[in-house]
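User: Second chain of the day. Same drill as before.
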Amino acid sequence: MIYTITLNPALDHFLDVDDLRVDDANRVKGECLYAGGKGIDVSRAIRQLGGDSMALGFIGGHTGQVMIELLKAEGVTCYFTPIAQDTRRNIIVTTARRRTQTMLNSRGPMVTKAEWAAFLAHLTLLNLRDAYVVVSGSLPRGVPTDAYRQIIALVQSRGARAVLDADGLCLKSGLRAKPFAIKPNVNELRRLTGKSLGSEAAILRAVEPVHRAGVEVVIVSRGSKGILLIGPQERYRATPPPVTVRSTVGAGDSAVAGFVFTHASGKGLEACARIATAAGTAATLAPGNQLCRMDDVRRLASKVKVVSF
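Assistant: Same format as last time:
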């Protein structure tokens, strides 16, 4: 079983306009709603890949109910912990003329100590043996700063493999619990290690202490260059074919979905590198927040160049 955790989800409201004029009325040409948040995006992408997962986290108010209905419509199973305050709502304005995207991100709800305790209690009710738990995104207000450390320690003590995709203090804290895998991009890895990562060799040197700290697999995403997947004995460079990018929203989350879905299927790290890269690249072909599509993943997978090094 695959579980995803999104502690600070958001209802993403996309608005399309010809141009964005300040201090003036702007006519909206099109709009759509998506359930957003990194873990939620992983669940949605896994569904696109033909797999199943369960989305966990906090949800509240009318906004939260809209998100649940959207996820159910996509075939995603939900087991959210209810909170008193409303789930946040983000506004994303895309201009056709200038091809810009302006994001207005809400602050988000305050989570109480009782709600945090209820979430941890929910985790203990799950069948976590041999499961995969994706822990990703930012923390809402009120949650302990070491929340990811607590979650990873809990789920792995019950037989799960935790996959961490976070930045800054969330990543540093989570690493203390020795997750099975992490997926930083180059900038996140640079912030974690404090090292300049201008070359592949520098990235490999930066990953060494992460392995020594107990992390089995490190997946470094490098945008259009693809990913470096570094395991205990194997390491792979996966390079995607050139594509015309429509949106980079959810590309990293789609890559995580590709890795987890493939590894949970019993495939080796080489196959994981290939599908993760294909899924991340496929997400850039879709507009808005639509993530990867299976037809694109299949087509791209055969074109991804995977090299052991």
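The domain at 2-308 is CATH 3.40.1190.20 (UDP-N-acetylmuramoyl-L-alanine:D-glutamate ligase).

User: Great, on to the next one.
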